[in-house]
Amino acid sequence: MLEKYLDRIGYDGTRELTRENLFRLQYCHLHTIPYENFDIRRDVEFDLEIEHVLDKIVKRRRGGYCFELNGAFTWLLRSFGYDVTEYFGRFLRNKEHDIPMRRHRVLRVELPEGSYICDVGVGGSCPTYPLKLIESIPQDSGDTEYRFRRDDIFGWVIEEKTSRGWEDYYCFTEEKQYDIDFVSVDYYCQRHPNSFFRQSDMACIKTEDGRFTISGDEFKIFSGDSVYTEIMETEERKAEVRKIYFGIEF
Length: 250
Description:
- The protein is of the alpha+beta class.
- The protein has one domain (about 1-190): Arylamine N-acetyltransferase fold.
- It has seven helices and 13 strands.
- The protein has helices at about 1-10, 20-30, 40, 50-60, 65-80, 185-190, 235-245, and strands spanning about 35, 85-90, 100-110, 115-120, 130, 140, 145-150, 155-160, 165-170, 200-205, 210-215, 220-225, 225-230.
- An eight-stranded antiparallel beta sheet has the order 5-4-3-2-9-8-7-6.
- It is globular and about 50 Å long.
- The two termini are about 25 Å apart.
């Protein structure tokens, strides 16, 4: 399965446990496997058992959301031999509550150069490369800059640089999580009527100079400084966009 996974993401590097290979693995993953919630929207139930996740992402060439994508990426990195610890995260961007629920899977990878936060499961704003877990220092990760700060309640907070300045992105605390810990929150995200993931279609995949995204009926192509926007008015067009730009067929 490891060879099939590497073929799926187009990775042809070495198996050395280096910073460069870690960065390349995340880059390849984000450019080949889409973030998407189509199964949740279609009431197609799934679970987080790794053999089922790998079947969906690798064999059936689908994408997924954070519990699937970052779970699969954890498996991939550990198969290489990387030291991976998983945490729970809270999204702080545009938060509706003072304390948003924990609903994100976060990966921490240990290297001789330090600890890095890896993520292939956010969507459009996902950092292209891992972020070194060090306070206050801006880090360029392809699309924009990020930095970490400490918070008494939220633990580590990742901030992203926007046109409005530095804004909170997501946060996590350092309690080690295991596969079983993500099951109940994944169930809520899949099934609860108030779940963010049940409200509208979402998809994103990075390109060399931008990304493709779906948000509800809206399809966008970000390319450099330009943005193409289309309202998909028919189910036939939606299916065409999913197939052409995201490689997804039901």
